[in-house]
User: Fold this.
Amino acid sequence: MLKVTLPDGSIKEVDNGYKVSEIAKDISEGLFRNSIAAIINGELKDLDTPITKDSTVKIITLKDPESPVIYRHTMAHIMAQAVMRIYGKDNVKFAIGPVIENGFYYDFDLGDTKLSEEDFKNIEEEMKKIIKENIKIEKSELTKEEALKLFKDQPYKVDLINDIEDDHVSVYTQGDFYDLCRGPHLPSTGMVKQFKLLSVSGAYWRGNENNKMLQRIYATAFDKKDKLDDYINMLEEARKRDHRKLGPQLGLFLIDTDVAPGMPFFLPRGTEVLNELKKFSREIHKKYRYNEVESPQIMNVSLWHQSGHWDHYQENMYFTEKEDVEMAVKPMNCPGHIIMFKSNVVSYRDLPIRMFEFGKVHRFERSGVLHGLFRVRVFTQDDAHIFCTKDQVETEILSIMSLINELYSTFGFKYEAFLSTMPEDHMGDVKTWDIATGALKRALEDSETPYTVNEGDGAFYGPKIDFIVTDSLGRKWQCATIQLDFQMPERFDINYVDNNNELLRPVMLHRAVFGSIERFFGILIENFAGAFPTWMMPEQVSVIAVSEKYNESASLFAQKLEKEGLKVSLNITNSTVGYKIREEQMKKVPYMIVFGEKESESDIITVRTRNGNTAENILLKDFIDTVKKEIAERTIELSY
RNA sequence: GCCGAUGUAGCUCAACGGUAGAGCGACUCAUUCGUAAUGAGUAGGUUGGGGGUUCAAAUCCCUUCAUCGGCUCCA
Assistant:
């Protein structure tokens, strides 16, 4: 008899070979009906897995958090089966069909047949049929030899089987379809019904561009209709907030793809927002004792030879030449900062030196990857390089993390940290890496920042911490980064004089907080759907004249607000009050004041917010003070 | 770069081999309005660029530029 420990701690004795599904049935008929898989000794397994040793077992139902991985995987098979039925078994070569965040995909090689979204209806219909047929899904174990024979007409599967180290592989069969798969899967095809095909695209076999391009269908599935609806609504909401649409619509920026692909034009309103972001950033960097600098936009290629960019980054650089001198447009700011560091003898008393620059960098990106403000060919980094002694590293990192926290919390962003350690291909000795990585780790721990370690994911020149922010739709963005660099100080042979009059190599820290200001701006547009906190808005208060009779007094009123330092938009167009409110509302101006007879006679106003609230009988002075405070404190929510 | 889709007025879209249309926006006029759209009129286009097929091309073909979804998630 074998001992099976259940989640409630109870122990059940079963015979060798007793199936998990039978255990479920023993517990209750209801559990059995709802069960889809099990976690056996920490591993996700099928329901018909036999128990062969003492084990801990947890039965998984659709309610468990582990269930989407399972039913989406099964749904991927159902989709593959539908594609097979429609296009004919001999015309489809199956590649892989994994579960991904929020859904799954399957890659097919359909020869000359091109899939398009118009084919979705067909495939979805066939999938519904397969679900309705409620076909039993069965697992079988094969030797690799048997599997190779079974999949002899499926070259991608053969490729996969050859790569598997185990002697045995598993195959899941559902009616006329079988697939090489690790599992686990639902017991039958009818258990989960809510799915939707999302998009079709090309994808290289094994992600390698030298391999054949396959056709990939992205899709998702949920156990309940309302969950699927929620997800589709979220996609819809994200689509509505798309900064590429909102940006031009709100007059923030435009991208003229004929004139300069990947290089945004910032319109007056957008520039106003960028300037507020920069102003905020300057304030905070001043507080943390950084010194702002500016380095040239183009510099001699010899500098880039020395920095290593010529050898490692040339593909992404722009070049220009005059009087036989070849220059490169800077893709990074570090070499420029080093030139400034080297311009003087540096004493240990001068360290740490914190050089900060809104560095505008150009990087060539392949045309296929450009994406609004998120992936561009020119952008501004809030870049800084810190030159310090080894002993100062930890303190400096703590200070950077505190700065990051202060900046992100102003936008209401939550974030997580990732520590990347030494990669196989690295420079510098292991000991230096250990010290540096240790310093990063201690800083994370001392500041009680939760973090995940990405083993071997560091840059070849040093370990790093990346910060990922989560926006209001739950999407994640990598923004801030702190990198230790062992290479640049060597390459440029930079030194400082220590208290024994010896020349020592400083440590160089490379860090950015927004990352790219423009990209961060894009994230903010989507996060706030264009309705930024008041301090960032290009217009903070709209003054709307009730009719042309009040145009003049309304304009004087607006000037009064402007003198208080508020950004005011004056709307005295010849249209109804309702229409003018709508215009201001569409611009997402936080506060609107309708100016008419009442307002011209007293200092009592009615404040309307873009959220649709109206606050009546507000003393003008109180309104001004309140909004000024809201702006000064960079409050996220509106005051009324 | 590669695969697929797309490109028509400032914006959203229609016309799918036979004289390019609508709504919004812009402009003009009337209206003088109290918290999300007053009414009427006017202007606006070598249908992304180039080439071809045809009596005739926004529509079909070729080419080029750009945009969108992807090309990292490993049976």
